[in-house]
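Weekly modeling sync, notes
Attendees: S.R. (lead), two postdocs, one rotation student

Agenda item 3: backlog of single-chain predictions. S.R. asked that every request posted to the team notebook include the full sequence so nobody has to chase files. The rotation student volunteered to paste the first one in as an example of the format we agreed on. Action items at the bottom.

Example entry:
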Amino acid sequence: MELWHLVALSFVAEIVETSWQYAPSMQGVMEKVWRLYRRSVFWLLAGHTGYLYILYLSLRYDLLNWPIIVAIALKTLDIFTKIEMVRKIYVRRETDPVTEEMLGMRMPPWLWLIGPLTYPWLVWLALTHTSV
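Predicted structure, as returned to the notebook:
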């Protein structure tokens, strides 16, 4: 498979991941994450198609360079943060004024472009990076 195919698939995986998470407010995002988490944490992980694709590329092409490590670390941090927020809000029901304010925040449209623009670029860097 050519390099641009792999990068394009990364973009598609990020669009799929972004599309199911999209909501006008942070409360909406957390509700969508909660629906998957309530079924099983594995459903939540399966919904993160960009993360799974990056892990696949890392294993398939034996990649362990800085761009792939950065991508995996950012994705892992993102997923664990969402899980912890969902557990705090819906499982333990421990909301404080800061959390309430965060849940009411509107999500600007450009925020949804961060994943589809950042991770394909990191995939391209990882696949073209040569060690010295």
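Discussion: group reviewed the output briefly. The chain has one domain: 3-128.
Action items: rotation student to repeat for the remaining queue; S.R. to check formatting next week.
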